[in-house]
Design a protein that fits this description.
alpha/beta; Rossmann fold; Arc Repressor Mutant, subunit A; 2 domains; about 45% helix; binds calcium ion
């Protein structure tokens, strides 16, 4: 069942949209303020977002921009003012569709279905292109950012994932902590090379059978680390 988030401060409109969407078999969540809506959109997995332009807290412009930086899903923007719609269209915020209120609920449902179908086609056409790194019993799907160890999926934080992937893609190459820090943390000035040690430890706990006797990520004393082929 597709899950939809409605970010709309007018509760009557939000409820009406939800009722129609639920009748069409969608699961619907509502947030009435901009900041809560954005937080929810980023934290949870939704298939589509219906976003009002004028909201208390953050407005629809900001929300759309912030979601686009992190997520790829259809966003339908709605506004009471036709002028605003023309303006935001021109800004190229990355919304997939724009609707002027009031609109008929059945029109909304039709557009929701069309966008979900289009995204599904996009996702399916990309399935073959997933970039996979396999080394020993570890399988890394770089596209989906998922990792399996001996067939069992493990969860990694963003930096743990980046570090593991980098090492696994360069097996037998010894990297210093400084090199790894520069490679993975790059421009972020916060933190220091001790962060690398901490992350290596976390990764080992997830991939090694015995993290005290690592088989995969080897410590080269006084130098750094390497992923053993
Ligand atoms: Ca509003």
């Amino acid at each position: 069942m597709s899950k939809i988030l409605i970010i709309e401060d007018e509760t009557a409109i939000a409820d009406l949209e939800r009722d129609y969407l639920e009748l069409s078999g969608f699961e619907v969540q509502i947030e009435n303020s901009g900041d809560k809506g954005l937080a929810r959109a980023l934290q949870e997995e939704f298939d589509l977002i219906i976003l009002d332009l004028m909201l208390p807290g953050l407005d629809g412009f900001e929300i759309c921009r912030s979601i686009r930086e992190k997520k790829n899903l259809p966003i339908i923007m709605v506004s009471a003012k036709k002028d605003d719609i023309d303006k935001i269209r021109g800004l190229g915020l990355g919304a997939d569709d724009y609707m002027t209120k009031p609109f008929s609920p059945s029109e909304l449902v039709a557009r929701v279905k069309a966008h979900l179908a289009r995204y599904e086609r996009l996702v399916n056409s990309n399935v073959q292109e997933n970039d996979i790194v396999e080394i020993h019993g570890i399988k890394i799907d770089k596209t989906a950012r998922r990792v399996w160890v001996d067939g069992e999926e493990k969860n990694f934080t963003t930096k743990e994932f980046d570090l593991l992937t980098f090492l696994a893609q360069n097996p037998n190459h010894v990297f210093t902590k400084e090199e790894l820090f520069k490679e993975i943390w790059d421009m972020e000035s916060i933190g220091d090379i001790a962060t690398v040690t901490v992350h290596i430890k976390k990764i080992r706990e997830k991939i090694e059978k015995q993290s005290s006797k690592p088989q995969y990520i080897e410590t080269i004393w006084g130098v750094g680390y390497r992923f053993k082929m």
